[in-house]
Each structure stands twice: as structure tokens, then as C-alpha cells.
Amino acid sequence: LPSPHSSPSSKMVLPSKLTATLVAVVVFTTAMIADGFAPAIHPGTTGSRLATTTKTTHLQAAVRGRGGAKPSPLLEDALSSYPYIFKTESEKADASANFNELARLYGDEEALGMVKIEPNALKMQRENFAKTLDIFAEQFGLEASQAMVQRNPGLLGIPPWNAENAESCMAFSYVIAVTRPLPKIAAAGLLLALLTAGVTD
Description:
Layout: H1 17-34, H2 58-64, H3 75-81, H4 89-106, H5 108-117, H6 129-140, H7 142-151, H8 167-179, H9 184-196
Helix pairs in contact: 1-9, 3-5, 4-5, 6-7, 7-8
């Protein structure tokens, strides 16, 4: 029984498991923003891993129709925007192949925009780009999935077997897109304010 001397203003509201999880996520996100990296919020798995050899679907066929094997006309712009030095010609060739694959899946201008946000996209495993996008598209549709990854290019690093149940990816892509133009400290503060609201009265 509550004490007769207690008052509503002194009662503490304990955070639920969901709130605690969100707080943990925001700590990670805040740290990544402070370090200048566009974080990828990885979806949870359902226990049954998808095979890495995801079969080709009509969704993959649709994005493949956007272009062939020829290099993107914006390839040189993408390589020149890369903030690090290519140590070998092989490393540069891999980065070029990554950008051409992004341009094929998302479009030339869109791919360049993602690389400017997340330069490490040029070093990620391009073999997963189409497979992961295909799994996202099964959940949200192709155009919505492309827009989600454009808002948060860190999602390019998610392997296909970890792309199921991507609702959190979609939600956080909007948060990341909104906070990206803000100063790092302001963005971190806004994330904390959004995700810790209501933890206590």
C-alpha cells in the first residue's frame, strides 16, 4: 500500500523494456553522430537466417532495369569526394565497382549523394547491396526502400540475412535524416529528448 504521506509528484515511473531499449539505442546513435558516422540501425533477426544466395525476384529485376554494366557518368565525382587515399589501383577499382553498383540500384545522383554522406559505402560489400535492397523491398516496396537507404546510407552495410523485420531501420532513417544537418551536439540532444521523453514524470 502506498504511504499516506506520498504524493503524485513524488512517484517514479519505471521505464518499460521498450523504453530501456530505446535509451540504449540512442546512446549508440549519439556516439556515432559525435564521431561523424551515419549509423545503421540493424533489425533483429527472427531466428531463421536467410541464405546469402537470395534468389532473384521481380524487385531485383526492376532495379536492374535502370542501367547496364557501363560506368556511371558520376563515377569520377564520387571518387574525388572520397576523403581518403586509395593505396592501390585494386582498391580504387573496387571503390569504382561499388559506386557503379549503387548507381545501378539507386540512380547516379542518388548514389553520389549517399557516398557524400557515407564515404565508406565505397568499401562495403557490394555483393550484398541488391540482395539487402530486395529484402527491404519485400517489406516496404522498392521506392520506399530506396528512399530509406538514401536517408541513412549506413544501411548499405547490413547483410541480407539480417535485413528482416526492418521497421526500426525505416523509423530511424527519418530521425537520422532530420538530425544530420544539425550541429553534432544539437543532434545528439534532440535524439535524447525524443527517445527518453516519458521515462519519468
